[in-house]
Design a protein that fits this description.
The chain is α+β, with helices and mostly antiparallel strands and 618 residues long. It has helices at 39-44, 63-80, 107-126, 128-148, 160-164, 171-214, 220-225, 236-251, 254-257, 264-272, 277-290, 311-325, 334-349, 354-402, 417-433, 439-458, 476-480, 486-493, 543-546, 562-569, 581-584; strands at residues 46-49, 86-94, 97-104, 465-467, 501-502, 504-507, 510-517, 532-535, 551-554, 574-576, 590-594, 599-602. The chain is built from 21 helices and twelve strands. Residues 528-598 form the PEP-utilising enzyme mobile domain.
Length: 618
């Protein structure tokens, strides 16, 4: 590693605003911002850009998810399970991007928290399957309640039946209550999200730490392999796509599915063909719930969901059908992953004395028990819950758009959730009084200003981190999920010193190929066979594209990040947590990716960036 060129990251208070983004601070709640009177405190902390979950600018309404997720994460560490070494993480929005800061428990308080944590977490670990079954019912019931919410226009006059019944309340009361319920249910499922997640990472981190003590030379990736090869529900949507591809070939309807630009018309054509009815029946069976899945990560209102936009899963099915026609395998080598997992664990267990071997095997069983939740919760919360939440929010935005509050159907997402409540009351008040709502004149020019600011913010990528470099990081999710360790932080500080990019060894293998920068799901169709996907972060739903890629490189993520887990399960070499790969590498450059060593080498640093169609710009 080259000598460190910096000892700290920029201060958020010293970074100039992008031109045209002046006043961006007024778009977000005060508690999401760095405050001048807390400057010393802010600069003394370490803040990393959470590009794993928020790789692009966050609109004000979307910041609701920042608030709910980070608050819920903290409550389970700090108040629910009383985690000994870590509270939660603090959060800020700076220049439109989300930054997080792990909050450590003071050293003198750690031991006092240990007995309570063992008592509380131990109960969950002892009753894991029983409590997890209850969890799934709670989450799905909340989703169904979200799905039942309707935002419908207010009537010209209240129905006489309600007057005759002496109801005494107007439809505006129901409309306001439904919005409040929408927000409350979203908050509820984000709390459920973290009920098991912190424990899942804690169990793996405990096993990881023990392995490092027993086997100091054991690579991080070797430890991760000990829990690989699990049949995860998170992969079920992709499994359904592969089943549908195979069924299409079997039924002889694959010619329809391999045509360019698949979409709703593809399903209509198959539905009227005698040999296509069985296929469309299988499609509908898979759609609910497994196509409540997004090619994004569920944190943005603009994420496209498979059930709403069938062209996305149909495109993936087309790729699978084409690979089947060429005789290429499309299934994950699950048996091979399990065999490797068992071989490695047996070899390491054999190196220990009988007493230590029992502890090793007990910790491994606990890690394997908890590990599936670390990925499976994604489907139920980030994908299914948030898909319904965004759909209902868009329904409300359309209602207020039709009342003249804003010109575009999705403009509501430029308001905070509290501003939406104010606008909705303005709408209800206008209906009740017969006067024109103030929002019809107030919001259109204000939204034009906000859209301009958001566009200006989007033109400047975030700093990978802000503030001071910490001596240690003890919060389990920060280490395992985000890959925030002192070693990674030093590599980010060294980013401008030249040489190889250094990240987390996330999935083994050595590969060389042409870089393809993928900043979001809209770029996935550009990926060519044999390219290296370089992204701020990947989403679990990108699995179908990994069959094309020879390797994956991301800016953020630890050995247990979604990108790392998915790449290992799909046997694709990967390096995560590089900090800056997607900003310093350009499409068209030749790369060598060593997933075992965690290094990315640019083989031709002077190569020009290719155009979106893969050709050199003229």
């Amino acid at each position: 590693m080259s000598p460190t060129t910096r000892s700290a990251f920029p201060s958020p208070h010293d970074l100039p605003d992008p031109p045209g983004a002046e006043g961006w601070q007024r778009l977000y709640p005060y508690h999401l911002l760095f405050q001048r009177d807390r400057r010393d405190e802010d600069e003394a902390a370490f803040w990393f850009s959470d590009s794993q979950h928020w790789p692009s600018v966050v609109k004000p309404f979307e910041a609701t998810v920042v608030e709910f997720s980070v608050k819920a994460m903290g409550q389970f560490n700090t108040r629910y399970f009383v985690t000994p070494t870590a509270y939660g993480v603090d959060r800020r929005i700076h220049q439109g991007y989300c930054y997080l800061s792990p909050v450590a428990v003071p050293a003198h308080e750690v031991q006092a928290r240990v007995p309570e944590f063992i008592h509380r977490a131990g109960h969950y670990f002892e009753h894991w399957q029983e409590l997890l079954a209850t969890w799934k019912h709670k989450v799905v019931d909340t989703i169904r309640e979200l799905e039942a919410i309707r935002f419908t226009p207010l009537p010209d006059v209240q129905p006489f039946e309600e007057v005759a019944a002496g109801l005494g309340l107007d439809p505006g009361d129901t409309l306001l209550a439904r919005y409040d319920r929408l927000i409350a249910l979203c908050h509820r499922n984000w709390q459920y999200h973290f009920e098991f997640l912190n424990l899942g990472y804690a169990a793996y981190l405990d096993f990881f730490t023990a392995c490092k003590r027993w086997f100091p030379d054991m690579p991080d990736l070797g430890i991760a392999k000990l829990v690989q090869g699990v049949d995860l529900e998170l992969f079920r949507p992709d499994d359904e796509l592969r089943k549908l591809a195979k069924l299409a070939v079997k039924l002889g309807v694959d010619d329809v599915l391999t045509r360019p630009d698949p979409g709703p018309h593809t399903l209509e054509e198959l539905g009227v063909r005698p040999d296509g009815q069985a296929w469309t029946d299988a499609w509908r069976a898979a759609r609910d719930p497994w196509f409540n899945f997004t090619s994004g990560n569920g944190f943005y209102s603009s994420d496209a969901y498979w059930r709403d936009d069938p062209s996305v899963p149909l495109q993936y099915i087309r790729d699978y059908v084409q690979r089947l026609r060429k005789g290429k395998p499309i299934d994950r080598n699950l048996a091979g992953l399990v065999a490797e997992r068992e071989r490695i664990s047996a070899e390491y267990a054999a190196l220990l004395e009988p007493g230590e071997r029992d502890v090793f095997e007990a910790k491994l069983r606990l890690a394997r028990q908890a590990y599936p939740y670390v990925e499976n919760h994604n489907f139920y919360i980030e994908h299914w819950t948030m898909g319904v939440f965004w759909r209902k929010a868009r329904e409300l935005s359309r209602l207020l758009c039709e009342d003249g509050f804003w010109p575009a159907e999705d403009d509501m997402f430029h308001l905070t959730r509290d501003e939406v409540r104010e606008a909705l009351f303005d709408h209800v008040n206008g209906w009740a009084t017969g006067r024109r709502p103030a929002g019809r004149t107030y919001w259109p020019p204000e939204l034009a200003r906000r859209r301009q600011i958001m566009d200006a913010l989007a033109h400047r990528p975030p700093e990978p981190a802000l503030g001071s470099s910490p001596e240690s990081v003890s919060e389990p999710l920060s280490v395992m999920l985000w890959g925030v360790t002192p070693e990674r932080i030093r590599s980010w500080l060294d980013a401008d010193a030249g040489g190889d990019l250094v990240g987390v060894p996330a999935s083994p293998g050595l590969a060389a190929g042409t870089a393809r920068i993928v900043r979001g799901p809209e770029d996935l169709p550009l990926v060519r066979e044999g390219e290296v996907i370089v992204a701020p972060v990947t989403a679990p739903s990108w699995g179908p594209v990994f069959g094309k890629a020879c390797a994956v490189v991301t800016d953020i993520g630890g050995v247990m990040s979604h990108a790392a887990v998915v790449c290992r399960e799909y046997s694709v070499p990967a390096v995560t947590g590089t900090g800056t790969a997607s900003t310093v590498i350009t499409t068209g450059q030749r790369l060598r990716v060593d997933g075992g060593a965690g290094t990315v080498t640019v083989l031709d640093p002077h190569t020009r960036q290719t155009g979106e169609d893969g050709r050199r710009p003229s």
